[in-house]
Amino acid sequence: MNHLISIIVPIYNTEKYLKKCIESILHQTYKNIELILVDNNSNDNSLRICNSYLKDKRVNVFINKKRGVSNTRNYGLKQAKGDFITFVDSDDYIDKDYIKILYNNILYSNSDVSICNYNNIYKSKVEKFCKKNVTFENEGNCLNLLLEHKYFKGQVWGKLYKKSIIKNIKFSSDLDYYEDLLFNFEVFKEVNKVIYDSTPLYNYLYKENSYNYNKLLFMDVCNKFEKYYIENNYNVNIVYSLIDYFYICNVNSMSINFNNNDFDKYKLLVKHIKDNILRIIFKDKMNFKYKFASIIIFINKNLYIKLSKYINKDKV
User: Fold this and answer.
1) Is the pLDDT higher at 316 or at 301?
2) This model's pTM is above 0.90
C-alpha cells in the first residue's frame, strides 16, 4: 500500500532558494505525495514561484495571513490529507529518496516517527550528524532521546510523522524560534517507537541570519516554556533539561558571532550556566558535548569565545 504523504513547506521571502526546494520535492522517487506550500505574506517573488508549479496536481498553494512560522505550519497541518506528514523548510532541499526511505523505515519497523540524518551545509563544507542506525521503543525513552540530542535534534524537518500521532498538537503561535522543539516535545510524549536512519537525506542550509534570529527574545522563550510546563505539572527534570539546553546553544551561537553590543545578554546566559553547572554536568540525559561546553564556560567564558570562533570559523 502506498499511503499519501503530506509535505508541508512554510514560506516567507525565500525566492533565492525556493525553486531548488520545490524541485527536490517534486522529483521524489516516491510519487504519492501532496505538496502543501504555505506563503506567509512574502513581499518578494515567493508566491509567484509557488503558483508556477500549480500545473502539477500534487501541488497546493495557500496564503496564511497570520504572522510567523508557527501559524504557517499550523495552517499547513489543517490542509494535510495524508496518512503521514513531513516538513521541509523553504530554503532547504531534500534527497530524491528522502520520502521513500523514511516511509519504508516507518512501515517495516512500525514506528511512530521516522528520522533521517542531514547535511549541515556551510559556505565551504558539509557536516553530517549521527552516523548510526538505531530504533528506540517506549515513550519515556523516545522523549529522553529528544532531550539528549545524541541521535537526532528537535527540528521538525528530517522527520516523517504518523498523522495519528500528531492528533491535535499544534505549534505554539507566540513563538517563532524553538517552536519546533516544543512541538516535538509534545509529540514525543505520545511516541512509542522511533527509527533513525544515518543516511543524510535532508540538506539544511546554514543561513547568515540564523544567529540573529535565534537570539531574539531568547529569555522570553525560556520564561514561557518554564511557566507553561511547570503549571501543567510536567516532570521538572525534563523541563530544566530543555531550558539548560536552550541556554547552552545560545551561548554557543553568541560566542561564534560575538560582538560587544551583545555583552550584557551574553553575561545573563553565562550566569545561568554557572549558577546551574552542577545540575548540567550531573544530569544523565544531557549530551556530553554540552556538559563539556558548560565546563569551559564556567572556567573562562573568554576562552570559550575564542575556541568557538576557531572551531566554527567556516560558519561565519
Assistant:
1) 301
2) no
